[in-house]
């Protein structure tokens, strides 16, 4: 993916953003209609289907085809909130953004700056991960990408409509899932684990929107 993206043609990132974001967005992206975007996006989605932790955290219902962006020469994306409802295709289908995803494709030593900074009720969290690592964060959060002052930061980014709209419910289910996995791995009482698994699925059944 890095090799293909190194010789790609990039376009102004403001092409896919509303008026609020356009004022603070200074990066470039693969054009939405680019075959490379489609091809690499499918590679990203295929990798996600094989990742239990990603599924546990996002509980995906619909996923926007991944896009690819590039920041360099002081490029940044100032504080913004992602649009709540986005076009899924050209046929009028829409997706509600519940979870935002950034897949880092550049190694941290290849550029200065470029931290993804997510602001929540506990303050600001800075994220800068090795190539191949992905961060998921609530689309309801304010976030920004710090200016890239050396090198280039290339990433894939996309949005997920979750079965669970509410961030706090999604978090509870994620933590419950993690506890069940840990209990199973350490050989806990199977009847108790089965009961907890039932509680997980019955909460999911009560809260899931499809
Ligand atoms: O480049 C990133 O990590 C995030 C991009 C972003 O926030 C957006 O496109 O809305
Ligand atoms: Fe964003």
UniProtKB/TrEMBL annotation:
Fe cation binds at residues 80, 82, 143. The keyword Transport does not apply. It comes from the Bacteria. Its cofactor is Fe(2+); L-ascorbate. One of its GO terms (molecular function) is dioxygenase activity. Residues 62-162 form the Fe2OG dioxygenase domain. The keyword DNA-binding does not apply. Keywords: Dioxygenase, Iron, Metal-binding, Oxidoreductase, Vitamin C. PANTHER family: PKHD-TYPE HYDROXYLASE YBIX. HAMAP family: Hydroxyl_YbiX. NCBIfam families: PRK05467.1-3 (NF003974), PRK05467.1-4 (NF003975). This is Fe2+-dependent dioxygenase.
């Amino acid at each position: 993916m890095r090799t293909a993206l190194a010789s790609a043609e990039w376009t102004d990132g403001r092409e896919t953003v509303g008026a609020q974001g356009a004022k603070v967005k200074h990066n470039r992206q693969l054009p939405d209609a680019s075959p490379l975007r489609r091809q690499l996006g499918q590679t990203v989605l295929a990798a996600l289907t094989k990742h239990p932790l990603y599924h546990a955290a996002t509980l995906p219902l619909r996923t926007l085809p991944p896009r690819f962006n590039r920041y360099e020469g002081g490029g940044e994306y100032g504080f913004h909130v992602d649009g709540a409802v986005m076009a899924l295709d050209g046929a009028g289908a829409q997706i509600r953004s519940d979870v935002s995803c950034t897949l880092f494709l550049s190694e941290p030593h290849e550029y200065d700056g470029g931290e993804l900074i997510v602001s929540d009720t506990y303050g600001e969290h800075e994220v800068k991960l090795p190539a191949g690592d992905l961060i998921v964060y609530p689309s309801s959060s304010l976030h920004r990408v710090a200016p890239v002052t050396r090198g280039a930061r290339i990433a894939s980014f996309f949005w997920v409509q979750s079965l669970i709209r509410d961030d706090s419910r999604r978090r509870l289910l994620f933590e419950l899932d993690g506890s069940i996995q840990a209990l199973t791995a350490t050989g806990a009482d199977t009847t108790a684990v089965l009961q907890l698994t039932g509680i997980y699925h019955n909460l999911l059944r009560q809260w899931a929107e499809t």
